[in-house]
UniProtKB/TrEMBL annotation:
Record bears the keyword Hydrolase: yes
EC number(s) per entry: 3.2.1.21
Protein name per Swiss-Prot or TrEMBL: Beta-glucosidase
UniProt organism field: Nonomuraea corallina
PROSITE patterns reported in the protein's UniProt record: GLYCOSYL_HYDROL_F1_2 (PS00653)
Lineage: Bacteria, Bacillati, Actinomycetota, Actinomycetes, Streptosporangiales
Enzyme class: hydrolase
Amino acid sequence: MFLWGAATAAYQIEGAAEEDGRGPSVWDTFSREPGRTRDGHTGDIACDHYHRWPEDVALLADLGVNAYRFSLAWPRIQPAGSGPANPKGLDFYDRLVDALLAAGITPVPTLFHWDLPQALEDGGGWLARDTAHRFAEYAALAAERLADRVRMWITLNEPFVHMAYGYAIGVHAPGRALLVGALPAAHHQLLGHGLAVGALRAAGAGQVLITNNCTPVWSASDAEEDRAAARAYDILHNRLFNDPVLLGEYPDLSAYGVGRWDVVRDGDLDVIAAPLDGIGINYYNPTRIAAPSSDGLPFEEAAIPGYPTTAFGWPIVPDGLRELLVRLKDRYGEALPPVYVTENGCSQEDVPGPDGVVDDRGRIAFLERHVEAMERARREGVDVRGYFVWSLLDNFEWAEGYHQRFGLVHVDFTTQRRTPKASYAWFRDFLAARERSEH
């Protein structure tokens, strides 16, 4: 069965930051520091999904999706990142999973979507090897409660983005700006993934995946220095997180001054390369790379002219999704497991009209063309088995606070009123038409 779904993440929608035993996460700490997020916004309330989840499950059911990707909040389940589980935290996800199943919707939880318990960050966060072992323990606690009903699990969400934005340049939590000093966070996240795969399998979990954010990398020109920079960026963004999982080896990191990597111990790569049942791919746009104009990193991002952009300023390149998926097939061959597009979407300046309608026709065009690009990749031999729109709801968009709206459903963050947008109706009709054609 092909999975058609929508996606969210715990810190971005749940709120209830201090309720029922939830501990602080790095995003609670980061967003409360002045100047870290736009207008000082925090996820303290977000979409209040912790209290309004029945309404949100009803929206999913009416939408007609057969899967829902969400994330479990590690600090809600294990407030200090170690020790016994918090029963009330697990109870919340118990209720959510049961309601999804009752609605005929496959629950697809992600174990880690960037909300590391603050206590673990105080001990070094993902720069510390111990965090990988704590992650496996947390995975075991979650699976012990939910694996009897949850058949598909995702370990990590976008470890590249968490390493780069959280540890290398500091624009996301935990706000460290270490540049290449952030690289250990890549290995320890991947080690945590591998250890969690073992814990999930031991608890009887069905399918296990990892979700990587990937991008087609375009050289700014045919000049060799630009092409070399593009290769270096491709290694950092794509291959650093795909090669160890799929091939059991790291790519050449010499462009980043890494020869023998001290953080990698004997046996680590065997753990990281544990067989998977699929791989999640999040796609938003290609990346154009030029040779660096100053010392520092061995690349420099360049603008991509000639394409419309989202409210975020990201270029809209639907065929980039086809290009990315085909490149993955060509690069990894039989080592590439089934692929799930676990995030794809765009931000717009969505404002309800006088009649209350949110006419987001730009998002409809975006989704329509990206689904077509995914279908072209399938015709070119890529085994794609799912597509999840980011996102079900307008939500807390990390450092941008509540200023970037990705949702199929508009959220008034003052009243928490949910208003399905035109794109919600389009996706609902699209899914209904597909179901009719398949029967």
